[in-house]
């Protein structure tokens, strides 16, 4: 009973684990500790768990680690949370150290490891099976992946273990931030997405638990200010990590999560979400909108950030105010006209309602009651005097774009001002100023084209390139096509005349300048009125000047005569040229087909040859692998037979003698059966020799005994003769003495 009690003591279990480790049986040590940690907690359990997690890391056994930590959490979550925190930190630190060591010793690139939740690909397993012995480089490449996978499982299991538990809430958020650092350090994009989804699921479970009729005592309550603060800090860390990893979709989702938590906190206590948190939030979400190409909501985010800055600080002046105002002003100027309207693709797909719903969601993220527009933001920044607070260079740019009407020179002026603003940003250390240059140039170019279209009916591309020096010829044409697709202007490019025509009559694409019933806009009406006046004035001029009419008629008659003279020849020449072109196309196409066919045939032959060689190589490798496999099986069978024989022969009396004589290692390596046979023969020979020696000794002993007997017989004869000679005298003496004694007894009796 005493021994059984001692075996269940934690100290004894820990000692047994150390003994198992000392003889190389780590799995047995782990199992012995695992059986013990299900009992009531005591101080020694922390040392046991530290050794337990160390063994789990060494063996990369995440399953037993999860089970053991779960049992330990049950023991400690109410009485020793600090101990659980120590064990988890040690566990994560050991896993991280192993991963760093594997990274140093591995030649594998982290980017080559796609998904840690997916095991080795089937083709890699097949290749390793076909190739037999694994090459050294392939072994090196398998060093890092398992440790990365183990560390990822470690973070995931710990978070899943600690979720929705108020006792271990601090540890949960600490490990979540460590997980974000792991994803950032090793650029684990897939794992970051899964981690974000996991935290989102945990928050959903917390919210569902609040609606239950009976809430467990250990459940997290969203009415707790400390819990909400921890969640906000973790979501901010998540948003920062997504931005640093350039996962903009995940950053947007993280911003949504952060906004929802802020709304929950605002409903509970307005002091939970501090203004500095909102400033950080708007700064991050502005970056997300900028990377997503949404300049409208980017500017709206910066405007909200400016308002909070202004409310936070009673005296919002100086360099900080100038910087914030400059960023807001530049972001607003980079918004193109009509940015709040749905795109042409949205209209064609008839998903305008979805577009409106999405913009409302984005507005809610910015805590704006209405959907922002470019004009609305311009009015708001004018109301807040942001242009006057901003840097003079930015204010000058604002006046040039929004107030001046000079389409022929505005682009050159804007280009110079943008260069000054970029230099100012480099001087002050604000690199964000330069990022708005391209967007502002696009906006200014669109405005110039609109203004030119209201003045000119057509303009050459060379002249337009001089007016808008932002683009080369190809970029300019692409820009014109884009703004026509966006229905900003109606125009089409005439490459033969090397010019661009404005107006709905010549436009290839329909424009918002035309209404749905076909009526043209006010600008088009003015153009048509001017064209009509010009045509009538020209008719009046021809009526007054008859000589000009006569010259025009003569010129027309000459051109008709020339046309009729050369009509047939030109027609035949055009037909011949068309036939020649068609013949050239047919011959070229035929040559292409023949060449393609030859290339295809050559490729097929090479592919067939490659497949044949690869098949032969695989067959040869399979034969070699089969031979090696059979050889290995035979060796394994021999080894098992020898092991079984050794197990049987350990009870043989000669085994101990051989071990004492040669040592256990030497005995295990030799052919024990043959050695025992030889040893037995040798012993038989020695036994026979011993028997012969014994026979010789027996014969010699017999001779000695016989000789002794012969000598004894002579002595005994002499003694016998002496006794026979002295016997009568001795008898007489005896009789005399007997008679005397009898006479003495008789006399004494009588007396």
UniProtKB/TrEMBL annotation:
Domain of life: Eukaryota
Regions annotated as coiled coil: 602-640
One record GO biological process: formation of cytoplasmic translation initiation complex
A GO cellular component entry from the record: multi-eIF complex
Domain PCI, chain residue ranges per copy: 324-507
Localization: Cytoplasm
Keywords: Coiled coil, Cytoplasm, Initiation factor, Protein biosynthesis, RNA-binding
Molecular-function GO terms, alphabetical: mRNA binding; translation initiation factor activity
PROSITE patterns, per database record: PCI (PS50250)
Main location class: cytoplasm
Protein name: PCI domain-containing protein
Source organism of the structure: Meloidogyne enterolobii (Root-knot nematode worm)
Lineage of source species: Eukaryota, Metazoa, Ecdysozoa, Nematoda, Chromadorea
């Amino acid at each position: 009973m005493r021994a059984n009690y001692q075996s269940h003591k934690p100290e004894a279990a820990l000692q047994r684990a150390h003994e198992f480790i000392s003889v190389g049986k780590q799995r047995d040590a782990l199992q012995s500790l695992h059986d013990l940690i299900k009992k009531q907690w005591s101080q020694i359990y922390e040392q046991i768990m530290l050794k337990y997690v160390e063994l789990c890391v060494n063996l990369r056994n995440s399953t037993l680690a999860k089970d053991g930590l779960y049992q330990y959490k049950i023991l400690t979550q109410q009485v020793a949370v600090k101990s659980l925190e120590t064990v988890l930190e040690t566990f994560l630190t050991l896993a991280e150290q192993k991963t760093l060591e594997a990274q140093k010793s591995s030649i594998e690139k982290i980017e080559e490891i796609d998904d840690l939740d997916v095991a080795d690909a089937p083709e890699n397993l097949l290749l390793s099976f076909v190739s037999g012995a694994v090459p050294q480089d392939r072994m090196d490449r398998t060093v890092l992946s398992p440790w990365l996978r183990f560390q990822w499982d470690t973070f995931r299991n710990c978070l899943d273990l600690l979720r929705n538990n108020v006792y271990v809430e601090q540890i949960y958020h600490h490990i979540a931030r460590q997980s974000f650092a792991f994803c950032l350090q090793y650029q684990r994009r897939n794992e970051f997405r899964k981690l974000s989804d996991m935290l989102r699921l945990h928050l959903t479970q917390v919210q569902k638990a609040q609606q239950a009729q009976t809430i467990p005592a250990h459940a997290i309550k969203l009415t707790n200010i400390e819990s909400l603060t921890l969640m906000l800090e973790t979501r901010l860390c998540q948003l920062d990590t997504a931005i640093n990893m350039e996962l903009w979709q995940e950053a947007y989702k993280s911003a949504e999560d952060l906004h929802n938590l802020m709304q929950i906190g605002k409903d509970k206590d307005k002091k939970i979400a501090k203004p500095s948190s909102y400033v950080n939030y708007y700064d991050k979400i502005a970056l997300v909108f900028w990377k997503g190409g949404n300049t409208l909501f980017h500017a709206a985010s910066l405007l909200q950030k400016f308002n909070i800055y202004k409310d936070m600080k009673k005296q919002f002046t100086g360099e900080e105010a100038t910087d914030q105002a400059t960023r807001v002003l530049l972001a607003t100027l980079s918004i193109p006209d009509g940015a709040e309207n749905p795109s042409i693709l949205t209209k064609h797909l008839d998903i305008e309602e979805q577009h409106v719903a999405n913009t409302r969601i984005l507005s809610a993220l910015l805590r704006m009651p209405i959907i922002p527009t470019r004009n609305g933001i311009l009015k708001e920044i004018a109301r807040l005097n942001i242009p006057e607070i901003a840097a003079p260079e930015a204010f000058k740019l604002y006046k040039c774009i929004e107030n001046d009407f000079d389409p022929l020179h505005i682009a050159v002026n804007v280009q110079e001002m943008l260069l000054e603003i970029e230099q100012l940003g480099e001087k002050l250390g604000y690199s964000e100023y330069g990022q708005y240059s391209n967007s502002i140039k696009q906006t200014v170019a669109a405005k110039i084209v609109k203004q030119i279209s209201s003045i000119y009916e057509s303009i050459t591309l060379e002249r337009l390139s001089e007016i808008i020096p932002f683009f080369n010829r190809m970029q300019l044409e692409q820009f014109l096509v884009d703004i026509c697709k966006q229905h900003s202007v109606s125009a089409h490019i005439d490459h033969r005349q090397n010019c661009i025509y404005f107006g709905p009559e010549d436009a290839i694409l329909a424009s918002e300048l035309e209404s749905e019933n076909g009526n043209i806009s006010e600008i088009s009406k003015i153009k048509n009125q001017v064209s009509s006046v010009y045509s009538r004035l020209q008719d009046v001029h021809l009526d007054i000047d008859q000589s000009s009419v006569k010259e025009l008629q003569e010129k027309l008659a000459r051109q008709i005569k020339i046309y009729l003279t050369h009509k047939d020849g030109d027609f035949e020449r055009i037909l011949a040229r068309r036939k020649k072109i068609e013949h050239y196309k047919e011959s070229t196409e035929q040559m292409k087909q023949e060449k393609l066919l030859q290339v295809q045939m050559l490729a097929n032959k090479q592919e067939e040859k490659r497949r044949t060689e690869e098949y032969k190589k695989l067959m040869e490798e399979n034969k070699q692998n089969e031979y090696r496999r059979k050889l290995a099986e035979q060796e394994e069978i021999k080894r098992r037979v020898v092991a079984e024989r050794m197990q049987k022969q350990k009870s043989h009396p000669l085994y101990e003698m051989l071990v004492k004589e040669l040592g256990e290692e030497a005995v295990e390596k030799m052919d024990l059966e043959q050695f025992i046979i030889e040893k037995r023969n040798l012993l038989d020979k020695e036994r026979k020799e011993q028997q012969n020696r014994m026979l010789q000794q027996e014969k010699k002993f017999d001779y000695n005994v016989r000789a002794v007997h012969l000598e004894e017989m002579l002595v005994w004869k002499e003694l016998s003769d002496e006794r026979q000679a002295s016997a009568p005298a001795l008898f007489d003496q005896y009789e005399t003495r007997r008679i005397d004694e009898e006479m003495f007894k008789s006399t004494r009796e009588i007396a």
